[in-house]
Specification:
The protein has about 325 residues and is of the alpha/beta class. It contains 13 helices and 5 strands. Helix 2 packs antiparallel against helix 3 and helix 3 crosses helix 4. The protein starts with 19 loop residues before the first helix and ends in a 17-residue tail after the last helix. It binds FE2/S2 (inorganic) cluster. FE2/S2 (inorganic) cluster binds next to helix 5.
């Protein structure tokens, strides 16, 4: 990690101002925060200033952000120098951040540093054509594809000195490049493709005994659709027959079917009035139960409740004075 200092005076611009579009954007960011909390917009504004000023933040931009947010310039300087996402030195059109942390170092990052020095030059210097610059940074979170580098907003992984050198030349000459692993693998899976979870039974249900569940579900759906169609046809037929009967003034079989069934035909619970039933009303029907409650309520319900008998005095009880 290099020291975080402002660029030397001879590269600092005399002034900085947001252009109209960015000024408008900055005002919208500031408006997101309540009155008195405008300083909360400091990081978005510094980021926009860096974007406008060819990828780095000059001193004048720090002062302009401080003025806009009503902050002391030193407070904004502290933020700009703390976060490595803000570049304090000029950068190339293609800014290479090369990871030098342990996993990448173990996988050959030192050799990649040598490539940067050979092709670009020392860290934090821009090539004469303005195309490239580089910086060693800490882990960028793609250790499983080490060694790697971030170039502008893209990751390039599984680098070797040969493919890294070719990549830098492609960028310098404006040729298309392919971000991600440079050795042909997809994501972080093994070279040559995945080696686990390849059994088709994992995905068709056969492994858990579901067999050909898709075929079974299709058949069930078809049978349900046929049954629904047959039912609808029968109902339509019955309605038509009823309408015909109404038109001719004769009751058809449908009318008879729809007449209420006589109570005696219901075979379910025993009737309370049935003398053959040994049980009484009070036990069998809700209405009988409600009668019972009616008979005993209010009149003498307290009389049926046994009175509480006073406790017999024990020898240990003290006499009441
Ligand atoms: S160590 Fe290089 S990406 Fe994590």
């Amino acid at each position: 990690m290099s020291v975080r200092r402002l660029a030397p005076d001879h590269v600092q611009p005399a002034s900085f101002a947001f252009d109209a579009a960015n000024e408008n954007w900055a005002d919208q960011q500031i408006a997101k925060y309540p009155e008195g909390r405008q300083a909360s917009a400091v990081i978005p504004l510094l980021w926009k200033a860096q974007e406008q000023h060819h990828g780095w933040v000059p001193r004048a931009a720090i002062e302009e952000v401080a003025r806009k947010l009503g902050m002391a310039p030193m407070r904004v300087m502290e933020i700009a120098t703390f976060y490595t996402m803000f570049n304090l030195q000029p950068v190339g059109q293609h800014y290479v951040q090369l990871c030098g942390t342990t996993p990448c170092a173990l996988r050959g990052a030192e050799a990649l540093k040598k490539v940067c020095e050979d092709v670009i030059g020392p860290q934090s210097t821009v090539t004469a054509d303005g195309k490239l610059s580089w910086l060693e940074v800490e882990c960028l979170g793609a250790c499983c594809n080490a060694p790697m580098a971030q170039i502008n907003f893209d990751y390039y992984e599984d680098l070797t000195p040969a493919n890294f050198k070719a990549l830098l030349e492609d960028l310098r000459h404006g040729r298309p490049t392919k971000p991600g692993p440079q050795n042909g693998r997809t994501g972080s899976e093994p070279l040559g493709g995945g080696e686990t979870l390849k059994d088709p039974g994992l995905y068709d249900g056969s492994m858990i005994g579901a067999g050909d569940w898709q075929k079974r579900v299709t058949e069930q759906r078809k049978a349900a659709a046929e049954a629904a169609a047959a039912k609808a046809a029968a109902e339509a037929e019955a309605k038509k027959a009823a309408a015909d009967a109404a038109a001719t003034g004769t009751a058809g079989p449908t009318d008879i079917k729809e007449a209420p069934a006589p109570a005696a035909a219901s075979p379910g619970r025993p009737k309370p009035s049935d003398p053959a039933q040994p049980s009484g009303r009070a036990q069998d029907t809700p209405s009988a139960a409600s009668d019972t409650i009616k008979d005993t309520s209010a009149k003498d319900i307290s009389a049926k409740t046994p009175a509480r008998r006073p406790r017999a005095a024990k020898p240990t009880d003290k006499p009441v004075k």
